[in-house]
Protein backbone atom coordinates (compact mmCIF):
# COMPACT_ATOMS: atom_id res chain seq x y z
CA UNK A 1 0.00 0.00 0.00
CA UNK A 2 2.90 2.35 0.71
CA UNK A 3 4.22 1.96 -2.84
CA UNK A 4 0.75 2.64 -4.29
CA UNK A 5 0.41 5.77 -2.14
CA UNK A 6 3.85 6.91 -3.29
CA UNK A 7 2.88 6.35 -6.94
CA UNK A 8 -0.29 8.40 -6.44
CA UNK A 9 1.79 11.24 -4.95
CA UNK A 10 4.14 11.03 -7.93
CA UNK A 11 1.18 11.36 -10.30
CA UNK A 12 0.25 14.70 -8.80
CA UNK A 13 3.84 15.91 -9.06
CA UNK A 14 3.71 15.63 -12.86
CA UNK A 15 1.80 18.66 -14.14
CA UNK A 16 0.89 17.20 -17.56
CA UNK A 17 -0.33 13.88 -16.11
CA UNK A 18 -2.32 15.64 -13.40
CA UNK A 19 -4.01 17.86 -15.98
CA UNK A 20 -4.85 14.89 -18.19
CA UNK A 21 -6.42 12.96 -15.31
CA UNK A 22 -8.48 15.94 -14.13
CA UNK A 23 -9.58 16.63 -17.72
CA UNK A 24 -10.67 13.01 -18.12
CA UNK A 25 -12.56 12.98 -14.82
CA UNK A 26 -14.29 16.26 -15.70
CA UNK A 27 -15.57 14.96 -19.04
CA UNK A 28 -16.72 11.71 -17.46
CA UNK A 29 -18.69 13.72 -14.87
CA UNK A 30 -20.31 15.66 -17.73
CA UNK A 31 -21.28 12.36 -19.35
CA UNK A 32 -22.80 11.01 -16.14
CA UNK A 33 -24.80 14.19 -15.56
CA UNK A 34 -26.05 14.14 -19.15
CA UNK A 35 -27.36 10.58 -18.72
CA UNK A 36 -29.99 11.97 -16.31
CA UNK A 37 -31.37 14.52 -18.81
CA UNK A 38 -34.73 13.16 -20.04
CA UNK A 39 -35.92 13.42 -23.63
CA UNK A 40 -38.44 16.22 -24.36
CA UNK A 41 -42.00 14.95 -24.36
CA UNK A 42 -41.42 12.31 -21.67
CA UNK A 43 -42.93 12.57 -18.19
CA UNK A 44 -39.94 11.48 -16.08
CA UNK A 45 -42.07 10.89 -12.96
CA UNK A 46 -44.58 8.68 -14.81
CA UNK A 47 -41.72 6.80 -16.45
CA UNK A 48 -40.13 6.16 -13.05
CA UNK A 49 -43.44 4.89 -11.67
CA UNK A 50 -43.72 2.45 -14.57
CA UNK A 51 -40.15 1.30 -13.92
CA UNK A 52 -40.94 0.75 -10.23
CA UNK A 53 -44.01 -1.28 -11.16
CA UNK A 54 -41.86 -3.46 -13.44
CA UNK A 55 -38.49 -3.74 -11.65
CA UNK A 56 -37.32 -6.83 -13.56
CA UNK A 57 -36.46 -5.08 -16.79
CA UNK A 58 -33.66 -7.19 -18.18
CA UNK A 59 -32.70 -9.03 -21.30
CA UNK A 60 -30.66 -7.41 -24.01
CA UNK A 61 -32.17 -3.99 -23.34
CA UNK A 62 -31.12 -4.37 -19.71
CA UNK A 63 -27.54 -5.03 -20.84
CA UNK A 64 -27.71 -2.05 -23.17
CA UNK A 65 -28.93 0.04 -20.24
CA UNK A 66 -25.86 -1.14 -18.30
CA UNK A 67 -23.53 0.15 -21.02
CA UNK A 68 -25.13 3.60 -21.11
CA UNK A 69 -25.27 4.04 -17.34
CA UNK A 70 -29.05 3.68 -16.97
CA UNK A 71 -29.96 6.29 -19.60
CA UNK A 72 -31.80 3.76 -21.78
CA UNK A 73 -34.62 3.01 -19.31
CA UNK A 74 -34.63 6.64 -18.10
CA UNK A 75 -35.26 7.83 -21.69
CA UNK A 76 -32.25 10.12 -21.48
CA UNK A 77 -30.68 12.06 -24.31
CA UNK A 78 -27.71 9.67 -24.01
CA UNK A 79 -30.00 6.61 -24.20
CA UNK A 80 -28.02 5.11 -27.11
CA UNK A 81 -24.66 6.07 -25.64
CA UNK A 82 -21.57 5.33 -27.69
CA UNK A 83 -22.79 2.00 -29.12
CA UNK A 84 -23.72 3.41 -32.59
CA UNK A 85 -20.12 4.59 -32.91
CA UNK A 86 -18.89 1.09 -32.09
CA UNK A 87 -21.26 -0.36 -34.70
CA UNK A 88 -20.02 2.12 -37.32
CA UNK A 89 -16.41 1.19 -36.48
CA UNK A 90 -17.22 -2.49 -37.00
CA UNK A 91 -18.77 -1.78 -40.41
CA UNK A 92 -15.79 0.32 -41.54
CA UNK A 93 -13.29 -2.32 -40.41
CA UNK A 94 -15.25 -5.09 -42.12
CA UNK A 95 -15.34 -3.04 -45.31
CA UNK A 96 -11.60 -2.45 -44.94
CA UNK A 97 -11.04 -6.19 -45.35
CA UNK A 98 -12.91 -6.38 -48.68
CA UNK A 99 -13.15 -2.87 -50.17
CA UNK A 100 -10.11 -1.46 -51.97
CA UNK A 101 -10.71 2.30 -51.26
CA UNK A 102 -10.62 1.76 -47.50
CA UNK A 103 -7.60 -0.53 -47.80
CA UNK A 104 -5.85 2.25 -49.68
CA UNK A 105 -6.70 4.76 -46.95
CA UNK A 106 -5.33 2.36 -44.31
CA UNK A 107 -1.96 2.43 -46.08
CA UNK A 108 -1.83 6.24 -46.30
CA UNK A 109 -0.81 6.76 -42.69
CA UNK A 110 -2.18 9.63 -40.63
CA UNK A 111 -4.12 11.26 -43.49
CA UNK A 112 -5.83 7.98 -44.28
CA UNK A 113 -6.74 7.39 -40.64
CA UNK A 114 -8.28 10.85 -40.45
CA UNK A 115 -10.50 10.14 -43.46
CA UNK A 116 -11.53 6.77 -42.04
CA UNK A 117 -12.37 8.45 -38.73
CA UNK A 118 -14.49 11.00 -40.57
CA UNK A 119 -16.37 8.25 -42.41
CA UNK A 120 -16.93 6.50 -39.08
CA UNK A 121 -18.46 9.68 -37.67
CA UNK A 122 -20.83 9.99 -40.61
CA UNK A 123 -21.77 6.33 -40.22
CA UNK A 124 -22.41 6.90 -36.51
CA UNK A 125 -24.91 9.66 -37.28
CA UNK A 126 -26.77 7.48 -39.79
CA UNK A 127 -26.88 4.44 -37.49
CA UNK A 128 -28.01 6.58 -34.55
CA UNK A 129 -30.85 8.05 -36.61
CA UNK A 130 -32.09 4.55 -37.50
CA UNK A 131 -31.73 3.20 -33.97
CA UNK A 132 -33.49 6.25 -32.52
CA UNK A 133 -36.58 5.45 -34.61
CA UNK A 134 -36.58 1.92 -33.21
CA UNK A 135 -36.06 3.31 -29.71
CA UNK A 136 -39.04 5.66 -30.11
CA UNK A 137 -41.27 2.81 -31.33
CA UNK A 138 -40.19 0.57 -28.44
CA UNK A 139 -40.69 3.30 -25.83
CA UNK A 140 -44.15 4.12 -27.16
CA UNK A 141 -45.08 0.43 -27.00
CA UNK A 142 -43.81 -0.14 -23.46
CA UNK A 143 -44.23 3.26 -21.77
CA UNK A 144 -46.92 5.00 -23.77
CA UNK A 145 -48.48 6.59 -20.67
CA UNK A 146 -45.28 8.49 -19.96
CA UNK A 147 -45.20 10.18 -23.40
CA UNK A 148 -47.12 13.45 -23.33
CA UNK A 149 -46.79 14.53 -26.97
CA UNK A 150 -48.15 12.99 -30.22
CA UNK A 151 -46.36 9.87 -31.44
CA UNK A 152 -45.12 11.43 -34.69
CA UNK A 153 -43.71 14.42 -32.80
CA UNK A 154 -42.03 12.15 -30.26
CA UNK A 155 -40.37 10.15 -33.05
CA UNK A 156 -38.97 13.35 -34.56
CA UNK A 157 -37.76 14.49 -31.13
CA UNK A 158 -36.08 11.12 -30.56
CA UNK A 159 -34.22 11.24 -33.87
CA UNK A 160 -32.95 14.78 -33.26
CA UNK A 161 -32.08 14.51 -29.56
CA UNK A 162 -30.63 11.00 -29.56
CA UNK A 163 -28.51 11.72 -32.63
CA UNK A 164 -27.23 14.90 -30.99
CA UNK A 165 -26.64 13.06 -27.72
CA UNK A 166 -24.63 10.24 -29.31
CA UNK A 167 -22.63 12.74 -31.35
CA UNK A 168 -21.81 14.65 -28.16
CA UNK A 169 -20.77 11.43 -26.36
CA UNK A 170 -18.58 10.54 -29.35
CA UNK A 171 -16.97 13.98 -29.10
CA UNK A 172 -16.37 13.47 -25.36
CA UNK A 173 -14.67 10.14 -26.04
CA UNK A 174 -12.43 11.59 -28.73
CA UNK A 175 -11.44 14.52 -26.50
CA UNK A 176 -10.52 12.13 -23.68
CA UNK A 177 -8.36 10.07 -26.04
CA UNK A 178 -6.64 13.19 -27.41
CA UNK A 179 -6.20 15.34 -24.31
CA UNK A 180 -6.96 13.02 -21.40
CA UNK A 181 -5.69 9.64 -20.27
CA UNK A 182 -6.81 6.27 -21.61
CA UNK A 183 -9.10 5.34 -24.49
CA UNK A 184 -12.04 7.73 -24.29
CA UNK A 185 -14.60 5.49 -26.00
CA UNK A 186 -13.81 2.58 -23.69
CA UNK A 187 -13.79 4.80 -20.60
CA UNK A 188 -17.26 6.12 -21.47
CA UNK A 189 -18.58 2.56 -21.57
CA UNK A 190 -16.71 1.60 -18.38
CA UNK A 191 -18.03 4.51 -16.33
CA UNK A 192 -21.60 3.53 -17.22
CA UNK A 193 -20.95 -0.04 -16.07
CA UNK A 194 -19.33 1.04 -12.80
CA UNK A 195 -22.40 3.13 -11.97
CA UNK A 196 -24.39 -0.09 -11.52
CA UNK A 197 -21.82 -1.96 -9.42
CA UNK A 198 -22.60 -0.57 -5.91
CA UNK A 199 -26.36 -1.24 -6.13
CA UNK A 200 -25.85 -4.70 -7.67
CA UNK A 201 -23.42 -5.65 -4.90
CA UNK A 202 -25.79 -4.33 -2.24
CA UNK A 203 -28.69 -6.35 -3.66
CA UNK A 204 -26.58 -9.52 -3.61
CA UNK A 205 -25.62 -9.17 0.08
CA UNK A 206 -27.50 -11.30 2.64
CA UNK A 207 -30.52 -9.43 3.96
CA UNK A 208 -29.66 -6.92 6.69
CA UNK A 209 -32.29 -4.47 7.91
CA UNK A 210 -34.63 -5.21 5.01
CA UNK A 211 -31.93 -4.63 2.37
CA UNK A 212 -30.36 -7.46 0.36
CA UNK A 213 -31.35 -11.03 -0.52
CA UNK A 214 -33.47 -13.08 1.84
CA UNK A 215 -32.68 -16.39 0.10
CA UNK A 216 -28.92 -16.44 0.71
CA UNK A 217 -26.36 -16.33 3.52
CA UNK A 218 -22.93 -14.90 4.12
CA UNK A 219 -21.18 -18.18 3.26
CA UNK A 220 -22.72 -18.30 -0.24
CA UNK A 221 -21.95 -14.62 -0.74
CA UNK A 222 -18.27 -15.18 0.16
CA UNK A 223 -18.10 -18.07 -2.32
CA UNK A 224 -19.49 -15.78 -5.03
CA UNK A 225 -16.91 -13.09 -4.22
CA UNK A 226 -14.10 -15.67 -4.26
CA UNK A 227 -15.27 -17.00 -7.62
CA UNK A 228 -15.46 -13.45 -8.97
CA UNK A 229 -11.89 -12.82 -7.76
CA UNK A 230 -10.64 -15.99 -9.48
CA UNK A 231 -12.35 -15.09 -12.76
CA UNK A 232 -10.97 -11.55 -12.60
CA UNK A 233 -7.45 -12.86 -11.95
CA UNK A 234 -7.83 -15.22 -14.91
CA UNK A 235 -8.92 -12.37 -17.19
CA UNK A 236 -5.92 -10.26 -16.09
CA UNK A 237 -3.58 -13.22 -16.62
CA UNK A 238 -4.82 -13.90 -20.16
CA UNK A 239 -4.97 -10.19 -21.04
CA UNK A 240 -1.31 -9.71 -20.10
CA UNK A 241 -0.09 -13.14 -21.26
CA UNK A 242 2.53 -13.03 -24.04
CA UNK A 243 4.65 -15.40 -26.10
CA UNK A 244 8.18 -14.02 -26.44
CA UNK A 245 9.99 -14.79 -29.68
CA UNK A 246 13.81 -14.34 -29.51
CA UNK A 247 15.21 -11.93 -32.11
CA UNK A 248 18.96 -11.81 -32.76
CA UNK A 249 20.51 -8.60 -34.11
CA UNK A 250 23.72 -8.79 -36.13
CA UNK A 251 26.77 -6.80 -35.07
CA UNK A 252 27.37 -3.53 -36.88
CA UNK A 253 30.39 -1.25 -36.57
CA UNK A 254 29.70 2.46 -37.11
CA UNK A 255 32.87 4.50 -36.70
CA UNK A 256 34.43 3.34 -33.46
CA UNK A 257 31.18 2.05 -31.98
CA UNK A 258 29.67 -1.38 -32.22
CA UNK A 259 25.91 -1.86 -32.40
CA UNK A 260 23.81 -5.01 -32.24
CA UNK A 261 25.01 -8.46 -31.38
CA UNK A 262 22.32 -8.77 -28.71
CA UNK A 263 19.21 -10.90 -28.30
CA UNK A 264 15.89 -9.18 -27.77
CA UNK A 265 12.36 -10.54 -27.67
CA UNK A 266 9.28 -9.90 -29.77
CA UNK A 267 6.25 -10.17 -27.45
CA UNK A 268 3.08 -11.56 -29.03
CA UNK A 269 0.04 -11.24 -26.78
CA UNK A 270 -2.31 -14.15 -26.22
CA UNK A 271 -5.18 -11.70 -26.63
CA UNK A 272 -3.74 -9.12 -28.99
CA UNK A 273 -7.20 -7.73 -29.74
CA UNK A 274 -7.75 -6.57 -26.17
CA UNK A 275 -11.28 -5.57 -25.20
CA UNK A 276 -12.46 -4.66 -28.69
CA UNK A 277 -13.81 -8.10 -29.78
CA UNK A 278 -16.23 -8.23 -26.85
CA UNK A 279 -17.47 -4.71 -27.62
CA UNK A 280 -17.83 -5.53 -31.32
CA UNK A 281 -19.65 -8.80 -30.56
CA UNK A 282 -22.03 -7.03 -28.19
CA UNK A 283 -22.85 -4.44 -30.85
CA UNK A 284 -23.65 -7.20 -33.33
CA UNK A 285 -26.00 -8.83 -30.81
CA UNK A 286 -28.06 -5.62 -30.64
CA UNK A 287 -28.89 -5.77 -34.36
CA UNK A 288 -31.63 -8.49 -34.32
CA UNK A 289 -33.53 -6.78 -31.48
CA UNK A 290 -33.22 -3.41 -33.22
CA UNK A 291 -34.65 -4.86 -36.44
CA UNK A 292 -37.40 -6.64 -34.50
CA UNK A 293 -38.49 -3.31 -33.00
CA UNK A 294 -39.28 -2.09 -36.53
CA UNK A 295 -41.44 -5.14 -37.31
CA UNK A 296 -43.72 -5.48 -34.30
CA UNK A 297 -46.25 -7.53 -36.30
CA UNK A 298 -43.76 -9.94 -37.85
CA UNK A 299 -43.81 -13.30 -36.07
CA UNK A 300 -40.42 -14.26 -37.50
CA UNK A 301 -38.61 -11.13 -36.35
CA UNK A 302 -40.29 -11.21 -32.95
CA UNK A 303 -39.10 -14.80 -32.51
CA UNK A 304 -35.56 -13.84 -33.54
CA UNK A 305 -35.63 -10.78 -31.28
CA UNK A 306 -36.81 -12.83 -28.32
CA UNK A 307 -34.22 -15.58 -28.85
CA UNK A 308 -31.31 -13.15 -29.18
CA UNK A 309 -32.65 -10.74 -26.56
CA UNK A 310 -32.40 -13.06 -23.58
CA UNK A 311 -28.80 -12.55 -22.43
CA UNK A 312 -29.10 -15.51 -20.06
CA UNK A 313 -30.63 -17.83 -22.66
CA UNK A 314 -28.98 -20.66 -24.60
CA UNK A 315 -29.19 -19.18 -28.10
CA UNK A 316 -27.83 -15.81 -27.04
CA UNK A 317 -24.90 -17.46 -25.23
CA UNK A 318 -24.10 -19.79 -28.13
CA UNK A 319 -24.17 -17.04 -30.77
CA UNK A 320 -22.30 -14.62 -28.50
CA UNK A 321 -19.53 -17.18 -27.88
CA UNK A 322 -19.00 -17.81 -31.60
CA UNK A 323 -18.98 -14.08 -32.45
CA UNK A 324 -16.46 -13.35 -29.67
CA UNK A 325 -14.08 -16.02 -31.01
CA UNK A 326 -14.49 -14.75 -34.57
CA UNK A 327 -13.88 -11.10 -33.71
CA UNK A 328 -10.83 -11.99 -31.60
CA UNK A 329 -9.22 -13.51 -34.69
CA UNK A 330 -10.54 -10.77 -36.96
CA UNK A 331 -9.31 -7.87 -34.84
CA UNK A 332 -5.96 -9.59 -34.23
CA UNK A 333 -5.50 -9.86 -37.99
CA UNK A 334 -6.14 -6.13 -38.28
CA UNK A 335 -4.09 -5.01 -35.27
CA UNK A 336 -1.03 -7.24 -35.80
CA UNK A 337 0.70 -7.33 -39.19
CA UNK A 338 3.32 -10.16 -39.37
CA UNK A 339 4.60 -8.91 -42.75
CA UNK A 340 5.29 -5.45 -41.34
CA UNK A 341 7.08 -6.98 -38.32
CA UNK A 342 9.25 -9.12 -40.61
CA UNK A 343 10.14 -6.14 -42.83
CA UNK A 344 11.03 -4.00 -39.81
CA UNK A 345 13.31 -6.69 -38.38
CA UNK A 346 14.99 -7.13 -41.76
CA UNK A 347 15.68 -3.40 -42.11
CA UNK A 348 17.17 -3.29 -38.60
CA UNK A 349 19.37 -6.32 -39.17
CA UNK A 350 17.37 -8.61 -36.91
CA UNK A 351 16.38 -12.22 -37.47
CA UNK A 352 14.72 -15.08 -35.63
CA UNK A 353 17.25 -17.89 -35.04
CA UNK A 354 16.61 -20.74 -37.46
CA UNK A 355 14.21 -18.73 -39.64
CA UNK A 356 15.18 -16.93 -42.85
CA UNK A 357 14.40 -13.18 -42.95
CA UNK A 358 11.53 -11.96 -45.08
CA UNK A 359 8.61 -14.15 -46.11
CA UNK A 360 9.54 -17.12 -43.90
CA UNK A 361 9.78 -14.85 -40.86
CA UNK A 362 6.35 -13.42 -41.65
CA UNK A 363 4.87 -16.92 -41.98
CA UNK A 364 6.57 -18.04 -38.75
CA UNK A 365 5.12 -15.10 -36.79
CA UNK A 366 1.69 -15.61 -38.35
CA UNK A 367 1.69 -19.32 -37.41
CA UNK A 368 2.60 -18.61 -33.78
CA UNK A 369 0.07 -15.78 -33.58
CA UNK A 370 -2.69 -18.06 -34.88
CA UNK A 371 -1.83 -20.76 -32.34
CA UNK A 372 -1.66 -18.52 -29.27
CA UNK A 373 -4.79 -16.60 -30.27
CA UNK A 374 -6.91 -19.78 -30.15
CA UNK A 375 -6.76 -20.32 -26.34
CA UNK A 376 -7.14 -16.57 -25.81
CA UNK A 377 -10.21 -16.43 -28.05
CA UNK A 378 -11.80 -19.48 -26.41
CA UNK A 379 -11.15 -18.05 -22.95
CA UNK A 380 -12.66 -14.69 -23.89
CA UNK A 381 -15.69 -16.46 -25.35
CA UNK A 382 -16.10 -18.55 -22.20
CA UNK A 383 -15.85 -15.53 -19.91
CA UNK A 384 -18.36 -13.72 -22.14
CA UNK A 385 -21.06 -16.29 -21.33
CA UNK A 386 -20.16 -16.71 -17.65
CA UNK A 387 -23.05 -14.43 -16.49
CA UNK A 388 -25.54 -16.94 -17.94
CA UNK A 389 -23.74 -19.76 -16.12
CA UNK A 390 -23.64 -17.77 -12.87
CA UNK A 391 -27.36 -17.05 -13.14
CA UNK A 392 -28.03 -20.79 -13.36
CA UNK A 393 -26.31 -21.17 -9.97
CA UNK A 394 -28.63 -18.64 -8.32
CA UNK A 395 -26.68 -15.39 -8.69
CA UNK A 396 -29.02 -12.45 -9.28
CA UNK A 397 -28.98 -11.20 -12.84
CA UNK A 398 -27.78 -7.71 -11.92
CA UNK A 399 -24.72 -9.02 -10.09
CA UNK A 400 -24.21 -11.90 -12.56
CA UNK A 401 -23.41 -9.35 -15.27
CA UNK A 402 -20.29 -8.40 -13.29
CA UNK A 403 -19.41 -12.04 -12.75
CA UNK A 404 -17.89 -12.24 -16.21
CA UNK A 405 -19.12 -11.36 -19.64
CA UNK A 406 -18.85 -8.00 -21.30
CA UNK A 407 -18.85 -6.01 -18.07
CA UNK A 408 -15.86 -7.73 -16.48
CA UNK A 409 -13.83 -7.87 -19.71
CA UNK A 410 -14.38 -4.17 -20.34
CA UNK A 411 -13.59 -3.20 -16.75
CA UNK A 412 -10.37 -5.23 -16.69
CA UNK A 413 -9.24 -4.30 -20.19
CA UNK A 414 -9.89 -0.57 -19.87
CA UNK A 415 -8.37 -0.41 -16.37
CA UNK A 416 -5.17 -2.14 -17.51
CA UNK A 417 -4.92 0.08 -20.58
CA UNK A 418 -5.37 3.25 -18.51
CA UNK A 419 -2.86 2.09 -15.88
CA UNK A 420 -0.38 1.33 -18.63
CA UNK A 421 -0.60 4.89 -19.93
CA UNK A 422 -0.21 6.32 -16.43
CA UNK A 423 2.74 3.98 -15.85
CA UNK A 424 4.39 5.22 -19.05
CA UNK A 425 4.10 8.85 -17.91
CA UNK A 426 5.64 7.96 -14.55
CA UNK A 427 8.54 6.00 -16.03
CA UNK A 428 9.35 8.70 -18.58
CA UNK A 429 9.98 11.05 -15.68
CA UNK A 430 12.02 8.46 -13.73
CA UNK A 431 9.34 7.67 -11.15
CA UNK A 432 8.47 4.16 -10.05
CA UNK A 433 5.17 2.87 -11.39
CA UNK A 434 2.35 1.25 -9.47
CA UNK A 435 4.19 -2.05 -9.05
CA UNK A 436 7.84 -2.62 -8.22
CA UNK A 437 7.90 -6.40 -8.01
CA UNK A 438 5.52 -6.91 -10.94
CA UNK A 439 4.67 -4.67 -13.84
CA UNK A 440 1.75 -3.40 -15.84
CA UNK A 441 1.92 -4.64 -19.42
CA UNK A 442 4.03 -2.29 -21.50
CA UNK A 443 6.50 -1.48 -18.75
CA UNK A 444 10.10 -2.19 -19.72
CA UNK A 445 13.21 -2.09 -17.53
TrEMBL record:
Regions crossing the membrane: 21-39, 71-98, 119-137, 152-173, 180-198, 218-238, 274-295, 315-337, 372-393, 399-419
Bilayer topology: Multi-pass membrane protein
GO cellular component: plasma membrane
Top-level taxon of the source organism: Bacteria
Gene3D superfamilies for the chain: SecY subunit domain
Coiled-coil region list: none
One GO term of the biological process aspect: intracellular protein transmembrane transport
Keywords: Cell membrane, Membrane, Protein transport, Translocation, Transmembrane, Transmembrane helix, Transport
Pfam families: SecY
Main location: membrane
Localization of this protein: Cell membrane; Membrane
Assembly, per entry: Component of the Sec protein translocase complex. Heterotrimer consisting of SecY, SecE and SecG subunits. The heterotrimers can form oligomers, although 1 heterotrimer is thought to be able to translocate proteins. Interacts with the ribosome. Interacts with SecDF, and other proteins may be involved. Interacts with SecA.
Function text: The central subunit of the protein translocation channel SecYEG. Consists of two halves formed by TMs 1-5 and 6-10. These two domains form a lateral gate at the front which open onto the bilayer between TMs 2 and 7, and are clamped together by SecE at the back. The channel is closed by both a pore ring composed of hydrophobic SecY resides and a short helix (helix 2A) on the extracellular side of the membrane which forms a plug. The plug probably moves laterally to allow the channel to open. The ring and the pore may move independently.
NCBIfam families named in the record: 3a0501s007 (TIGR00967)
Family: Belongs to the SecY/SEC61-alpha family.
Protein name: Protein translocase subunit SecY
Taxonomic source organism: Rubrivirga marina
Gene: secY
